[in-house]
Design goal:
26% of the residues lie in helices and 20% in strands. It is an alpha/beta fold. The protein binds S-adenosyl-L-homocysteine.
Amino acid sequence: MIYFVGAGPGAADLITLRGKKLLEEADQIIYAGSLVNPDLLGWAKSECVLHNSASMTLEEVTECFITGEQKHWLTLRLHTGDPSVYGAIREQMDRLRTLGFNYEVVPGVSSLSAAAAALRAEYTLPGVSQTLIVTRTAGRTAMPEKEDLASLAAHQASMAVFLSAGLLETLQQELLRGGYIPATPAAIVYKASWPDEKIIRCALKDIAARAAEAGINRTALVLVGGFLDRDYERSKLYDPGFTHGYRQGGK
Ligand code: SAH
């Protein structure tokens, strides 16, 4: 059996209970070494076989899956954050399906959530934005034409940008070109939930300069939008005058 497990954003105790239990039981762990906290591997059995996938190809990872199945092992594929966000798990799952192997996915806490927690922010504020756009800058992976950053920026919704800490000049230019005003509040969260976490809050027009000053060019999320500002409307859900399935309003 093969489990894809979300390791969480960094802090070892942000893995799920299910993920931790599987770590303790695994006979083989293939972990994304560039971003997974090595402390998590401390929960593995002493005889557990460890592979750092940072230097491996999909073919080599697949070989490990095959070896594990031949030996009737519990194989754990440990991905940073939540595996469904830029995790490259689909191509692995498709190989497993072709090979006829059973697998399951255990979700994790994405850096999307950890960055908001670090900022004590909420992406979805009434009267500000009820939409969160999760995207990236085009790197070696191209962006689909209909999703170019400027067109996404036109919505002026809350936005979280992955995989772009090394491309902040382009990001800033594209977001401004698309319609966010230069003073739109923004934040850069470097290594959310790690001991060396850093937070920068600034206007969108300054993100590239401020990140350069702080020496941040990787492992960061860029967040943009009015949700980082002070103004919003209170929620209907907790408004005394609002009736819903669990509460009669008017009190
Ligand atoms: N599956 C992961 C994302 C993997 S892509 C998740 O759910 O978080 C790698 C990118 O995620 C990095 O370039 C960075 O943009 C972001 N990232 C991962 N861990 C992070 C962290 N602890 N703090 C800030 N950004 C992080």
